[in-house]
Amino acid sequence: MSKVGLIPFTIQTVLKDTKIIPPGIKLVGAPNSWEQGYFGNGNVIAVLDTGCDSSHFELQNQIIDVYNFTTDDKGDPKNVKDYNGHGTHVCGTICAEENDRGVIGVAPKAKLLVLKVLSGQGYGETKWVTEGIRYATKWRGPNGERVRVISMSLGGRDDHPDLHKAIQEAISQEILVVCAAGNEGDGNHETDEFAYPGAYPEVVQVGSVNLQKEISTFSNTNKVIDLVAPGEEIISTYLNNEFAVLSGTSMATPHVSGAVALIIEQCEKEFDRSLTEAEVYAQLIKRTVSLNYSRRYQGNGLLDLGLGVDSNIETEQTAANK
Hints:
The protein is of the alpha/beta class and 322 residues long.
């Protein structure tokens, strides 16, 4: 039985309460999009993880639908209770509600399709992840909504053809798939570290920087890193209406997933049409700034939504680089 699991992450602090715009969300420039009136409205992001604390006051209004693929809670398909905390943290970075309490997510008016594919121990069968991707691809909401982004802060060492095929099917349906690069980095950019599904060339593979814009020592390096985002000392929602500071490429990934919702909202308003997956990817990469690192560390650079004021579409050449 093949397994996939949480990419290792560090829990640094758990807080009863806070009131803050998280520094990572400021670093990627999300407030610039908010000032222009873009909050991710109308976009659904599928989060494949350990579930979510759906009663958290920051998330209870953000969830449009759920499905449990694991054996937790006797396999009840509508019980996505998070016994780990990881999935809840990821969900908060994507779209914690704007309510003058706690934290705020990158895209606070986006919606979450919570797909529980990992158990409370942080592991799951690869087929659960594969089924989750296919579910997200086919899912339709009560008003015809469809998933625009799949976010996966998980990984394994093995390349699974069926998992790869499911991802390709999602992309063929114009869904952008965002994955963590992994935390096996050895500090040497000349050596490759791969975690799947992040290592598949079709996905957006996200590496990590700290809040000083320095590459995280744990962040995997390889030739198919697409970009980096904040992944150290990231404060977000946690179990029991609390908050936690976590570190890992798992924490970088949802910054990008939420940013894509903002980009789609802005660009589809400006161009008055739906964007293809390749066009969304091109717009994402336009919103990166190169750091002083090898591309094997940083890909195209650090996510910066402040670069998105002029969103002229340059699709084919940029998308071809993925």
